[in-house]
Amino acid sequence: LAAMLSFLYVAVGGAVGAVLRYGLLRWMPPPADGLPLATILANVIGCLLIGLLAGLFSGPLQGRDELRALLIVGVLGALTTFSTYGWETYALGARGHLGLAAINLLLSNVAGLAAIWVGQ
């Protein structure tokens, strides 16, 4: 039952995050020839929030897995996966794995852009 509930928390959080992302895109439509400001804003907000929440979940909210699933995996996961990428890269560096952090940066960006190119 607990595992099923965690999926529900992620789904509810994901719905909230998706609506937030859609709202940003409606509020700041991407220009034809300019920076996608809504996406940049979503990524920066997501990174700020995942940094804040990760601290809370390793401190005062430790053990609140349902809240973590709802907020980090659900809301922030739907708002932006960039926040997860940013956090994982930061965490690698913070633990002294600077080489792995650099590889993650390189692979995520280069492989991601290459995958888009191949897909096109």
Salient structural properties:
5 helices, single chain, 81% helix, mainly alpha, 120 residues
**Distance between the ends:** 42 Å
**Annotation, overall tally of beta strands:** 0
Percent helix, as a range, is over 70%
Question: What is the overall number of helices?
Answer: 5
Arithmetic mean of pLDDT: 89
Structure description:
The chain has 120 residues and is an all-alpha fold. The model has no long low-confidence stretch (mean pLDDT 89). The chain is globular, with a radius of gyration of 16 Å. The N and C termini lie far apart (42 Å). Helix 1 packs parallel to helix 3. The longest helix has 26 residues, at 2-27. The chain has helices spanning 2-27, 37-57, 65-79, 82-94, 98-119. It has five helices and no strands.
Concise structural overview:
The protein is mostly helical and 120 residues long.
